[in-house]
Amino acid sequence: LVSSLLAASSLAQTPPMAPDIAPKFEAPTDAADYVKKVVMIPMRDGVKLHTVIVMPKGTRGAPILLTRTPYNAAGRASRNASPSMLATLPQGDETFVREGYIRVFQDVRGKYGSEGDYVMTRPLRGPLNNTKTDHATDAWDTIEWLVKNVKESNGKVGMLGSSYEGFTVLMALADPHPALKVAVPMSPMVDGWRGDDWFHNGAFRVNTMHYLASQTTARGSGRELATGIYDDYDAVLRAGSVAGFAKQHGLDKLTYTKKLFEHPAYDSYWQHQALDRILGARKLTVPTMTVVGQWDQEDIYGAYAVYAALEPQDKDNTLNYLVVGPWRHSGVNYDGSTLGALKFTGDTALEFRRQFLQPFLNRHLKDEIVPATPPVLWYQTGTNYWQHLESWPRSTAAKAVYLQPGFKLDFTPPAGGAPYDEYVADPAKPVPFVPRPVRMLDRDVWQPWLVRDQRFVTDRPDVLSYLSEPLQVPMLLTGAPVVNLFAATTGTDADWIVKVIDVYPDEMPNQPAMGGYQLPVSMDIFRGRYRNSLESPSPVVANKVERYRFALPNVNHVILPGHRLMVQIQSSWFPLYDRNPQSWVPNIFHAQPADYVKATQRIYHAPDAASFVELPVQIPPPF
Ligand code: PG9
């Protein structure tokens, strides 16, 4: 008997050589508080888009929140492996989950699980797109399918997303489906040349090459670049030029690299894609809340541009809203208690999502009666509190702050003294944008770089810093500072980086490490060849004083008594921005080693050539 029992049990045993990968495995979902469905939604041209739908178990009559992404819908809908919907969805979705929303993530055409071909920030149908589809039609077709097929929904859809996902929200507004009741573009990419992602005022951002490697070398995740060099400063410098860097890593073969290299200026390729222009020319029908971080290190331009373009259509303050938090790029969806060394009054991002975003969504997607949303909600920094404003920009008088001899800064024009200061800008030793070694992809470096203490460059001989006396009263900067630089160069092209900096008092008893901190409040780069026309660049005339006028990013910041104001000027910001060769070449992407030359830059503060920054100032601020 014993031996026959043993034989029977050995019969039931799993053969040692049975293959160990399950052909189709599904973990039990009984314990989960949500249901997840994956569907392929057909578009009008037959292409099917991979879509993940997540909803609480037992959902009835709930609104849908849709995000269209190039960043892997399946991954976006599974932050953690968990039976809890709250833990499964992204951190920023907390309030949607608590409110019982149906959450939908979709891969844009050509990425991850979706069919079709991928075109980077695919232009709308029109001069650049002669196909029958774009992000507006894909959003339309998706919403049409969702309201017809997701029986648990109440037929109302909101779109929301940050950065590229914010761009796809704006694209849907170009021709919105009637069921699209509300839109929340966050840190949206709007104009890749003027000041979002690829260029700022014509200066190319080299981190773009890393992005193209990760996004366009494969339908799914691409590879990181194997530079073999720890310090990105060296990696980019040794490649010689952007074209050299691209070639070294095979990125010159990518079609988007080719498109970028073929369009270094603000030509029709860029103008036809500028979403502020496009949307401003169409009727706004969907309530839209555009959200951005004051120190958005990727898309600091577009949110304000879109808001400004749409605002003339919103006389009654019912359609167009702007929110600016003290955040980095996409910071609205994470913890907003700090940014770099800056500390705020709590988790400002969560505060916004709970107190303003969710009620706004509920009003439009659940017909709830909620407190009115302020037309503009802005966390004023320096004083650190949420301000409710009627519109933006606020009516302020521009107050000119002038560079002065002796590296001073004052509100009266210079009366005499040395007419200029000068420095040698050497492309072989460009000024780093963060301290070396530069690790551009390190989040701890990249995300807070716009608030980094500038003392690491202030004393370089090729950086000029002009400093005011300590302020006696608070100074509110509220709007976009405008640079008016009178400068001459021995070269035939030049980059100008101008920073408006809040210099903290020498001692900060409550946060000692902030003593003397040089906080950039607003700063940007301008490529000199575009001073007369963004579309048609022209050589700078060597040794001639020319005027460079350009706007810096928007701020709403109070410089407190005891603090000083600083204006800092330099001619490179490396390796984030490619180097200007400083001798004229038609297309900087293809500059050759011999084109990179030292130049002597003169910054003028003479009575007839007085450099100044127009500050959008209110003194004292209206607290
Ligand atoms: N800033 C990123 C991006 C947006 C659009 C185009 C390319 C890059 C992003 O964070 O999605």
TrEMBL record:
Gene3D superfamilies: alpha-amino acid ester hydrolase ( Helical cap domain) (1.10.3020.10), alpha/beta hydrolase (3.40.50.1820), Galactose-binding domain-like (2.60.120.260). The keyword Cytoplasm does not apply. Keywords: Hydrolase, Signal. InterPro entries: AB_hydrolase_fold, CocE/Ser_esterase, Galactose-bd-like_sf, Xaa-Pro-like_dom, Xaa-Pro_dipept_C, Xaa-Pro_dipeptidyl-ppase/CocE. Residues 358-614 form the Xaa-Pro dipeptidyl-peptidase C-terminal domain. One of its GO terms (molecular function) is dipeptidyl-peptidase activity. SMART domains: PepX_C (SM00939). The keyword Transmembrane does not apply. PANTHER family: COCE_NOND FAMILY, PUTATIVE (AFU_ORTHOLOGUE AFUA_7G00600)-RELATED, PEPTIDASE S9 PROLYL OLIGOPEPTIDASE. This is CocE/NonD family hydrolase. It comes from Pseudoduganella plicata. The gene is gaa.
